UniProtKB/TrEMBL annotation:
Alphabetical GO biological process terms: amino acid metabolic process
Named cofactor requirement(s): Zn(2+)
GO MF, one annotated term: aminoacylase activity
Record-annotated Peptidase M20 dimerisation domain positions: 221-330
Keyword Cell membrane: no
GO CC annotation terms, alphabetical: cytoplasm
Binding site for Zn(2+) 2: D145, E180, H417
Catalytic residues in the record: D114, E179 (proton acceptor)
Highest rank taxon of the organism: Eukaryota
Protein name: N-acyl-aliphatic-L-amino acid amidohydrolase
Organism: Hibiscus syriacus
Signal peptide residues on this chain, from the entry's feature table: 1-30
Entry EC no(s): 3.5.1.14
Keyword hit for Transcription: no
Length: 458
């Protein structure tokens, strides 16, 4: 029994050894592949970290360092590069992957290099550290807005070049300054420049927002800021006297009316009838009144002037004329000694007077191509949205170009401009593949008319 057992045992051992030997090369091979993938991924993450660690926070971004970093990346990838400055010290880095068919217009992938400042003491990880926690979350200012996207464009190109992909259309990458302070010395000047005209751009991709669910978010328009100040005047008087038409009373009537409008718009969002970007939002930003005294304000005096400031965001779908009428007749009517001025009043139309909206239907092949490319890379797409705030996309739309806002961050809380901004490394890597798919589709796209031309001629 013992002998038999031994024999059986030896037989099994022999089989096991043989099996292991057969499997050995497979195991070695798969271990090598896993290691090389891990190695490649850690290099990708480390390049992202390097970019995040460059302090490009407003109000004094280190553009010199970011420019150097980007030019080095371009060199590694054999991309053509050019640095232009419309305002001294505010460089715009333009990288180019030339296409094989020069008769086709180009693709522009835009990202801004600056970030908003961070209150370091409110962060769990240092905002310039790009530390990775146990869940793989990369913490840094700019991890969502929008150094991720800028680096993902580059990583996608790296991958496509390694496949031997050759774009038909030229592909431009722009890394622009000052988006976070309005883009006036960056894209606003760039979009009207000869450099930009010579690029012959057909479609622009720019930033979007993170999505807390599994659907990526695509933006076809954005709300434009109207910064309104309303002023009231009235007879001054003793603080104990009740009388009509005081400046404060006039102002408060307006504030009450504006507050009701705000609530009615907000109710539409709360009821789920409209998205945040579809309504006109109004928030009071300032309130100025009172007669100063050494200890604060004179308390027994009703002032003769008062003013309030509002940040209003207007979607391009809104009826601007009716809003202007509402403003003049209800919010700051001359009948109540009110006047108003705009600190900023963005346009809702392009240079031809068309609403600043990028079409999301079949009339815009870029939209369809984008959705399909994302799906091809196993991404899901939500309903098209209007971006609630302003981005550089508006300057491209104003010169009549389609521009789509997209940052591939699903299952991610929206933390732009917030404390502890982070992006998960898995999500970041997934985003690279999404851009591989998008660039493949965009850079290969030929309008149907062009293909059929020779046949039509026959
Ligand atoms: Zn941004």
């Amino acid at each position: 029994m013992e002998k038999e057992f031994n024999f059986h045992h030896q037989f099994l051992l022999h089989r096991l050894l043989l099996f292991s030997l057969l499997l050995f090369p497979v195991l070695i091979n798969s271990t090598t592949t896993t290691t090389s993938i891990q190695h490649e991924q850690s290099e990708i993450i480390s390049r992202f970290q390097q970019y995040l660690r460059i302090n490009t926070a407003q109000p004094s971004p280190d553009y010199e360092k970011s420019t150097q970093f980007l030019l080095t990346q371009a060199e590694f990838l054999s991309l053509e590069s050019q640095v232009v400055e419309f305002v001294k010290g505010k460089p715009l880095v333009i990288l180019k992957w030339p296409g094989s068919d020069l008769s086709l217009p180009s693709i522009l992938l835009n990202s801004h290099t600056d970030v908003v400042p961070a209150e370091h003491s409110k962060w769990v990880h240092p905002p310039l550290g790009a530390n990775i926690d146990e869940q793989g979350n990369i913490f840094a200012r700019g991890s969502q807005d929008m150094k991720c996207v800028g680096m993902q464009y580059l990583e996608a190109i790296r991958k496509l070049k390694s496949y031997g992909f050759q774009p038909k259309r030229s592909l431009y990458l722009t890394f622009v300054p000052d988006e976070e302070i309005g883009g006036h010395d960056g894209v606003e000047k760039f979009a009207h420049s000869d450099v930009f005209k010579s690029m012959n751009v057909d479609i622009v991709l720019d930033e979007g927002l993170a999505s807390p669910n599994e659907n990526y978010r695509l933006f076809y328009a954005e709300r434009t800021p109207w910064w309104l100040v309303i002023k009231s005047t009235g007879a001054p008087g003793h603080g104990a006297k009740l009388y009509d038409n005081s400046a404060m009373e006039n102002l408060f009537k307006s504030i009450e009316i504006i507050r009701r409008f705000r609530a009615s718009q907000f109710d539409l969002v709360k009821a789920g009838l409209k998205a945040e970007g579809d309504i006109i939002s109004v928030n009071m930003a300032s309130l100025k009144a009172g007669t100063p005294s050494p200890t604060g304000f004179v308390m027994n005096l009703q002032p003769s002037e008062a003013e309030a400031g509002f940040d209003i965001r207007v979607p391009p779908t809104a009826n601007v004329e009716s809003l202007e009428k509402r403003l003049a007749e209800e919010w700051a009517p001359a009948s109540r000694n009110m006047s108003f001025e705009f600190k900023q009043k963005g346009t809702t139309v392009d240079y031809l007077g068309r609403p600043l909206i990028t079409a999301t239907d079949s009339s815009n092949p870029w939209w369809t191509l984008l959705e399909e490319a994302i799906k091809k890379a196993n991404g899901k797409v939500g309903k098209p949205e209007i971006f609630p705030a302003a981005t550089d996309s508006r300057y491209f739309r104003q010169v009549g170009l389609p521009a789509i806002g997209f940052s591939p961050m699903a299952n991610t809380p929206v933390l732009l401009h917030d404390h502890n901004e982070f992006l998960n490394q898995g999500e970041y890597l997934k985003g690279n593949d999404v851009y591989v798919s998008i660039i493949e589709a965009y850079a290969s796209y030929t309008p149907p008319g062009r293909d059929s031309l020779p046949r039509d001629e026959l």
